[in-house]
Amino acid sequence: MEPSLFRYIWMHSRRDQLIVLAIILASLPFYFASFDIPKRIINEAIQGRAFADGQQTAPLFAWTLSLPGWLGGGTLAAFEGFEAGRIAYLFGLSFLFLALVIINGAFKQLINTQKGVLGERMLRRFRFDLYGLMLRLKPEDVRAMKPAEAASIINNESEPIGGFIGDAFIQPMFLGMQALTALAFITLQNMWLGMVALAIVLIQAFIIPELRRELLRLSRLRQIESRRLSGRIGELVEIAPAIQNHAAGPYTKSDIGDRLGILLDVRVRLFKRKFAIKYLNNLLAQITPFFFYAIGGYLAIKGQLDIGQLVAAIAAYRDLPPPIKELIDWDQDRADVIVKYEQIVSQFPPESLKPPEDEHPTKPPPGDAPIVLEGVRLKDRLGQALIEPLSLTIHRPAQVALAGAGGLAQDMLARIIGRQITTYNGTVRIGGMDLASMENATARTVISYAGPEALLFHGSIRDNVAIGLVRTEPPETPPPVDPRERQRQREALKSGNPLAPYSIGWIDAGAPMETAAPVDDRVMAALFVTGMAEEVYRMGLQGRIDPEREPDAADRFLEARRRIRRRVAELKLERLIEPFDALAYNSNASIAENLLFGVRQGPKLADDALGSDAYLRSILEAEALVLPLADLGLHTAESAMEVFSELPVGNPLFERFSFVRADMMPEIKRSVEAVRVRGGVAQIGPADLSVLLNLALGYVETRLRLGLMEPLLQARIVRARNSFRSHLPQSYAAEVEFYDAERYCAAAPVVDNLLFGRIAYGIGTAQARVSELIAETLRDSGLTGLVNRLGLDFDVGVGGRQLLVSQRAAVALARAIVLRPDILIVDGALSVMTPGDARKIMQSLRRERRGRTLLAVMGDAAEADGYDQVLVFDGPRLIENRTPGSARGAAAPNEEPSHAAA
């Protein structure tokens, strides 16, 4: 990054700056004329000097410039004008003044618009460059940077710099020219008035900036404290669960309070200084009219200055303080922004940056090129040895185990080879290429590292895995046809951003494999190795499609539904699935689902609002179901209190009784108590009645088995179902999508559309047998890939928080292997999984890595059976380098092994 802000701005916006400067120069004659016209209106039209000696007409628009006596006097005639009477003369000059006001306003609007657009373009470029610098930081420095601080630097701290960029050259030129024009006009009217104006300007120009030095120091201190506060808040947000578990809220609040107090003190001192300077600046600006009225009035009385000149000079001075004040503000902003720019650039020191990527990356080393370590040594910040001087060769392809019960040497060596640590003594070469200086574009096909931290970004599972398949160069795109796309590319070009759109063309599904494969196939293949493919399939069954956008997919799922029905009949599995029937009650569905006979998809019929919804309540009242359901809800509430009253939050029983949440228990207890106090459900208030109705509507007889659903009540609910649908108001049309045996329900997940019913509760094998039947039908229908696609669309949330810890690890590991690199390093990536799952995944990885190199870090060398090479560490020392045929422990720590790895 260019260390000088002004050089950076000029380097990237020179052409646009010159265009705006040319517009400024073109505006100056009109600006000067707007000062001269009022003088002519007063002197020539109103006082009648143009009609001296009884003349009835005078030349209108005659353009002459009168020079003061101290410049030799005389006039300069530019245009003789048109003959006009006195009234026409007055209106002609007035309309000319109005035209000049409009023209000057248009110039100002154009200049400010161009300046704003230029600033925004440069801000976009600056932020883009900062992100590029962040990607060039060494991995150690990236880990040391707090995410909140990095986001603050790129987004928040760069904002004022972007606001200044458009003003950097244009603002002083524009304001300076305006001030000089006004000052020159005043001086042309009278030298003494010009000298007074100049004196005040000089005082403002030299004293005010000097007083602002302390203001700049405080501003710099405010920025530093704000950044520290952002970093601390980011840390506390990340560990918020631990703070809650240990009741450390008051302690952390005290920390934040102290930091806010320091920031408040800095800001108060800054504002006091700021407004003291503003007071002095305003005083100097307002004292000048005193001299103009006193000196100008004296000269007018003495006949040395006419009234028109005095009025014009005062009018011109009215336009002088604003540019001067804004120039002083610009100078303050300049000093402040330069400090901010230097502070931002200092976060990316050249010694912490890797060289920029070459447009044509070097060819990767051969797949059988050995990994050669020469004198590799690593120390921590305290100078303690993490790896003692180490020289060895790892021949490829091979499966290599890095083992050690104590110390971190095996982990550190894995991170060095995985390019996660780039600052160490010695060299690591692959095929003669230095590993530390290898370009990312080259290294991505050679080495992939899967560490203990499963770092996921907000997006789908596909996005997180397929990032391993992105192209290193922007994809070629045809010339755009859409005007909006052309405009986007023009702005991207002017801002130094990639022309290729982010949404298309970046994923390379074929390279570097011999045959191209669709992205989803490659992603699923990688997830299969990491044991995540089955989970993605299950997520896909819970996914949704829009039949209007994908009518073919909806039709295929409907055909699969019919196949499942036939298979159920053939296998006599009817008791496992209770289908939806518009004329019958489904005992394996909730009362609400039976009543609505559809899927709720709006806020009016949400779980917590269902019992109090006005329309649904009207249907229940019309069918005389309010009190029976409230009574059912009361029995359910009493049963819930018996089961849950002594259970802590998080007990698995809350999950089993999914309609009863832990946070609902206080409301349930209050409602039950209200029934007891008032003597029945008919006497309780609306709020308590809604609680009981909500419990009743979530009731599933076959699941809870409280014996509350009688056949008569079921029949009445089915009758109410018909009333609910037939009288549904238009405002509720988007709140529920009704079930239809011949239509695909867009609001329901895929599995519900396939079954069009509910799996029976209480049959132990029902879930497994139905799941097997669904999987078989999807395979036969060729729909498994579509279901997997829906599963890959699953949003992992911020940082992958919508996934389990083991699932995050599986997705991160799949990202590392999806490109099939020559060398895969697994360093603690399976540590969050159960030992059994970790062994299965490692065995799957070893099968997948046949013919390629795998480096696996493990704690016990006994786990390394079957590996081609085993490196055993004791603390920072290599104590054993075992290869097939070598004596156990025979290799010395700093000698080359005598046998090549298979």
Structural account:
This protein has 4 domains: 348 residues, Up-down Bundle (ABC transporter transmembrane region fold), CATH 1.20.1560.10; 186 residues, Rossmann fold; 87 residues, no CATH class; 148 residues, no CATH class. It has 32 helices and 18 strands. The strands form 6 sheets. The chain has a 6-stranded mixed beta sheet with strand order 10-15-16-7-17-18, with helices on both faces. Strands 6-5-8-9 form a 4-stranded antiparallel beta sheet, covered by helices on one side. A two-stranded antiparallel ribbon has the order 1-4. The longest helix is centred in the N-terminal third of the chain and has 53 residues. The radius of gyration is 40 Å and the shape is extended.
Which stretches are low in confidence, meaning pLDDT under 50 for 5 or more residues running?
Answer: 511-516, 887-902
Taken from the alpha-carbon principal axes, the silhouette is extended
| N/C terminus separation | 47 Å
Strand content: 5-15%
The biggest sheet, with number of strands, parallel, antiparallel or mixed sense and barrel status, is: 6 strands, mixed
**Total number of strands:** 18
Mean residue pLDDT: 83
Strand order of the largest sheet: 10-15-16-7-17-18
Helical content stands at: 55-70%
The CATH class of the largest domain turns out to be Mainly Alpha
Class from secondary-structure proportions: alpha/beta
Q: Work out the helix count.
A: 32
Supply the CATH superfamily name of the largest domain: ABC transporter type 1, transmembrane domain
**How many separate domains make up the residues?**
4
**Rg for CA atoms:** 40 Å
Fold-level CATH name of the largest domain: ABC transporter transmembrane region fold
Quaternary structure annotation? single chain
CATH architecture annotation name of the largest domain: Up-down Bundle
